[in-house]
Amino acid sequence: MTDVPAQSLSAAIVRHAANTTFEQLPPAVIRAAKLSILDTLAVAWAGLESTGVAQARAVAIDSGGRPDSLVWGSDQRLPATQAAFANGVAAAALDFDSLHIGGSVHADIVVLPAVLAIAERTAASGKALLTAHALGVDLTARLGMAAPGHSGWFYSSIHGIFGAALGAAHLLGLDETSTVNALGLALPQAGGTQQPMVEKSQAKRLQSAFAARAGVDAALLAAQGLQGPREVFEGRFGAFRLYESANPATVLDGLGQRWEGQSTAFKKYSNCGAAHAALSVALELIREHDLRPETVSGVTVILTPYAHRAVGAAYEPGDQPQVAAQFSVQYAVATALRYRRFELQDIEPAAACDPETVALARRVRVEVYPDSNARMLPAHVAFATNKGIFERTALSIPGSASNPLTEDEVLAKARTCFAYGARSLATAASERLIQKVWAFETIDDVSTLWR
């Protein structure tokens, strides 16, 4: 399109998306997208009864409107914007969702609620959904990778909104000019802060949902011909100037050849990824040396400044114990020491408030690696015992590219999540849903996913 500036980063991103079809996606990219979609649906299902989810859904349902898209786990259909919001809250609730470690973004919980809502509204095919999802996740991750600093913005939101807008625009069949407008209309709505993580607030699980809803809104507005700024990222007051400074070359590096969805890390534990390295080596040491609370006189955890900011504060269950448990390395290590595990049941409010676990968590001392600019690695754990000190440094995170979960492990996690909680799916229903996602490219209308 001649009226899209040739040198605009937004234009380059949009031109790539416009020229991408399902048939051009490598089989490995399609496989990764299916796993990501399945994992996100499963953790959302397990999170349906988490605190704050019902209230967010009630607000969305009270808004009413055309029945575009299903609210997951119900028979209620809402406008695509509200469905994206309600489903996004559930997907984020347990902090069990996938993570792109290089970009420090939870791309799937923003992009999937947005593109699935639009796919249902437009009766799109499974192939179209998979393509839109791959494009949206790839952009979100690339934006995160391009911005190495971390001044306190919540990356999943400030970058995810653009991935959601791009994926939604692709499903709506917008031309290049209108898709640039969709990204431009997302810019004034971009936001998100790490303050809810610091305060252990329920707002943490709302921020990515706000971005999903806003991304859908931006695409729908662009479809009506509304115009947004064109230099969305590199402009004088664009995202790269006002949020985190970023390198446009990183966004474009390998665009179309390397798909960042393939680097998605599927979480092994249902808490913040910044605690996973320490939790993993803590469990290794506990099992190898048969460590128990009564034989351990002290525990020290050393984290990077970035990880410490997310999970290093003193553990206090407070009035949101589930969120507090999700964002505390003290609680994670204490739970591991007490039960030799860290599972969904361990972030339930009753577990998070258990006096013995709380007391044990307060015995875990958290320190910070000085002068480290790294994000989540390394992490060091040391247990002082009556037999000496047992310690280990983690140099990888479970689920990451260097230490990935197997496909069977991701499927097993999905089955566990679908069976979890008051709205658990029967085994037959769970298997049927898994098989439909696995055969997405054969589905003519994504709305049939739920039938």
Automatic annotation (TrEMBL):
What positions does the domain MmgE/PrpD N-terminal occupy?
13-247
Q: Where is the MmgE/PrpD C-terminal domain?
A: 269-422
Q: Which InterPro entries match?
A: MmgE/PrpD_sf (IPR036148), MmgE/PrpD_sf_1 (IPR042183), MmgE/PrpD_sf_2 (IPR042188), MmgE_PrpD (IPR005656), MmgE_PrpD_C (IPR045337), MmgE_PrpD_N (IPR045336)
| Coiled coil region boundaries | none
Q: Per its record, how is this protein called by name?
A: MmgE/PrpD family protein
The family assignment reads: Belongs to the PrpD family.
Q: In terms of domain of life, where is this protein from?
A: Bacteria
- Please tell me the species this chain comes from: Pseudomonas typographi
Which Pfam families does the record cross-reference, listed alphabetically?
A: MmgE_PrpD_C, MmgE_PrpD_N
